[in-house]
Structure formats: structure tokens, C-alpha cells
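Sharing in case it's useful to others searching the archive later.

Someone asked me privately for the predicted structure of Porin domain-containing protein, so I'm posting the question and my answer publicly. Question first, with the sequence:
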Amino acid sequence: MWGNRQILHEKYDYPKLRLGAARADVGGTGAFQSIPSMSARKAYAVEGGVDYAFTTAFTGSADVLYRRNTTLSNSSMVYRLLGLYSLSKRTTLVANVAYLKNSSSATEALVNTTSGAIGGGVPGTSQTSVALGVRHTF
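And my answer, the predicted C-alpha cells:
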């Protein structure tokens, strides 16, 4: 059961530029996390981002996400940069860098750890994740 959910999303498209923003609130009597034995939590997330087509082949993106768990009084910030370079109509090079900063009690993670905490991270720690790859559409 998800309880109460409220989601607001806006997107603006221009010839080379796309701006987006979103806010989500979750709360209520139901448990919204993936651990059914836990009590319900109240949380919200706010995100803003921009995509820019530098050339017909290369697009860059930047996003910022703020997440606040109001039940446990902790928060996290995620900053992300993404680059997409089209080699052809079906093949794209992908580069993604993300940085996560947790407040002193937050346990969110970009890459799961063996901490055993909800979210997979260690309280108050930060993580950086780098992903490089090739996307081919069939």
C-alpha cells in the first residue's frame, strides 16, 4: 500500500534546451518502502534538471535531486552530469557521473553497500558513481 502520493512535474522544451522540475510527496497510513514490516514514513523529493544539445550528436544533462525524510529527520542531495554522444542512429556513447551527499543520519546509496541500513548506505557518508557505456538499440 502506498498511502497518500502527490506528484507535480513540469517540463519546458526549446529548440536545443529542455528544462524540467518535479516534486513528489509521500505519506499516509501505508508503508511505501520495500520493507513491509516497517511503519509508514513521510518524505518528499524535489528535482530540477536541464538538457542541452550542444551539437546534433552530443547532448549534456545536469540534474539536482533533494530528498527529505520528515519522519526520520534526514535528507540527501544528488548531483548528476550525463553526456550522450550519438555515433549513429542506433548507437550512443554514454557517460554518467553522480555524487550523493547524505545528512548525518541519512543512509541513501548510489551503489549498495553491506551496511544493512535502509537505503543501503552508511549514515552521513557520500558516494560518487561513474558509469561509461555504449547503448545500442535493436
